[in-house]
Amino acid sequence: MAHLVLTVVGDDRAGLVSALADTVTAHGGNWERSELAELAGVFAGIVLVSVPDEHLTGLADALDGMAGLLRVTAHPGAQPQAPASTQDLTVTVLGNDRPGIVRDVTSAIAANSLSIDSFRSRTLEAPMAGGTLFEATAEVRIHSDADAGVLTAALERLAGEIQVDLTIG
């Protein structure tokens, strides 16, 4: 069984997810996980699929054939491995929007040699104060030999420096 990570981009319109799912299913594939969104009128996402080895070439060709609807790029995925002993940590940041927040937060995480499993962000209007708020949530995987307290302290220092609210759970 092969695993493919598909990146998909196209002009947003009805039926894109259905068309992609039909193509995967028609080639014996299984849709395992995805993150899909409309961003500024563009549909974009990433999808993990598994497909029997004997159908891999047919699926890849069919995905290439979707170019009029979606631009799909297939990346070979690694075979899933047994998870190591880890702890998951959720980091949420909320503050006035400004350039560099994502860089600062992700740099603090990377400086501790930790992996980000998921990162979501958005901007929203500040209803009472006016202006724009930035909100981000990162799911971070901490291996059993790492100290979550070190990351927590680093992020708390950073939150004070860049003046954002930080929640770690």
From TrEMBL:
All copies of domain ACT, residue ranges: 90-169
Gene3D superfamilies: 3.30.70.260
Name of the protein this chain belongs to: Glycine cleavage system regulatory protein
Record field: transmembrane: none
Organism: Microbacterium invictum
Matching CDD domains: ACT_GcvR_2
InterPro entries: ACT-like_dom_sf, ACT_dom, GcvR, UPF0237/GcvR_regulator
A Pfam family recorded for this sequence: ACT_6
GO biological process: regulation of DNA-templated transcription
Coiled-coil region: none
